[in-house]
Amino acid sequence: MPDQAPAHITDGPQFSENWFEHNIPHWQRWLGDFRGRCGLRALEIGSFEGRSTLWLCENILTADDCRIDCVDLFTQDPVYGDYHARFRRNIAAHAHKIVEHAGYSFDALRKVEGEFDIVYIDGWHSAFGAMADGVMSWPPTLSSGQDMTPSAIAPKAECQPSI
Ligand SMILES: C[S@@+](CC[C@H](N)C(=O)[O-])C[C@H]1O[C@@H](n2cnc3c(N)ncnc32)[C@H](O)[C@@H]1O
Description:
The protein has 163 residues and is of the alpha/beta class. It is 25% helix and 21% strand.
């Protein structure tokens, strides 16, 4: 018997990479108080196949009127192929919560309208890319919001200048 059923006969989400699950204990701690709240708004930069998107929808953005803006290139990839199609399939049960922004974050972040309770930055991982996404997503983040990159979390209220 193979370890896994062939992809075409599995019903669950299908992912080629696991760049997310190590975050779960931290996110449960940081975001637990948000769980179940109505009208939450999240912004995710770098959605790929929807692993982090799905976790947020199933565990934090559980109320039906929550929304998550997903920014990604969502284009054909030389290694991962049509990962956008897998994103769509994986988050299908939560499609009503998702607003897609296909393209570079630099362009999308000039157009998204906040305010966001949660921001996850997981797109272009260069120092410049992560910093630029952080800077551009700062204004539309609520002062009570959480701004997260893979290496840091910042409750915005604690980072306001004190002058
Ligand atoms: C590490 S993956 C995201 C993983 C995802 N959060 C998860 O949990 O599986 C990074 C994603 O960011 C996208 N990306 C990279 N640079 C980007 C940019 N400048 N603007 C928008 N998306 C970008 C890539 O296409 C890729 O899908």
